[in-house]
Amino acid sequence: MHSHCINKLLNLEDVIIKNIIHADDYSKIFIETKPYTQTCPRCGNHTKRIHNYRYQVIKDLPFQLKHTYLVLKKRRYACKCGKKFSEKYYFLPTYQRRILRLSYKIIDLLRNLVNIKSVAETTNVSVNTVTRLLDTVSYSTPSLP
Q1: Do 110 and 76 share a domain, yes or no?
Q2: Is residue 144 part of a domain?
Q3: In degrees rounded to 5, what are phi and psi of residue 83?
Q4: What is the pLDDT of residues 85-141, one digit of tens each?
Q5: What is the pLDDT of residue 41?
Q6: Residues spanned by the domain of 128
Q7: Ramachandran region of residue 83, left (φ > 0), alpha (ψ -120 to 50) or beta?
């Protein structure tokens, strides 16, 4: 598999493409990252010790008119102080199940005065997700003449 070309297409740096599954209405791309030395959030020490792995399904932008999911093999580290913590990913905000560029796309669609329901259907998220994302956007109030 030409993972370098796929990485460029997905615009994800330092990600290893392990497998791609195509179905009629969706594509799943299995990805992982190389293990790096991490800094413990509790004590500040550096550790390479891996505690465990888990898979997380992340929604991405539609590709080829199909819903696209990234299946990320997430890594948890263990520090000598006893703290277990997850690796941080630049493309995935903490506690999120959608990639950052999908959030940007939702905001962009809303800026073009598309209604919330059609934005949710287009981007494969719920209406509540779009509404919550809209609540996080700050905008300036126009001044009155």
Answers
A1: no
A2: no
A3: -75, 130
A4: 999 999 999 889 999 999 999 999 998 877 999 999 999 999 999 999 988 887 777
A5: 96
A6: 98-138
A7: beta
Same domain? 55 vs 116: no
- Same structural domain for residues 126 and 77? no
Residues 6+ apart with CB under 8 A from 44: none
Q: Among 14, 6, 20, 93, which residue's Cα sits nearest to residue 58?
A: 93
Residues 105 and 52 in one domain: no
Domain assignment of residue 124, yes or no: yes
Are residues 63 and 110 located together in one domain of the fold?
A: no
Are the CB atoms for 56 and 29 separated by under 8 Å? no
Global confidence as pTM: 0.85
Sequence-separated (6 or more) residues with CB below 8 Å from residue 99: 58, 59, 60, 61, 70, 91, 92
Q: How far apart are CA 97 and CA 94, in angstroms?
A: 9
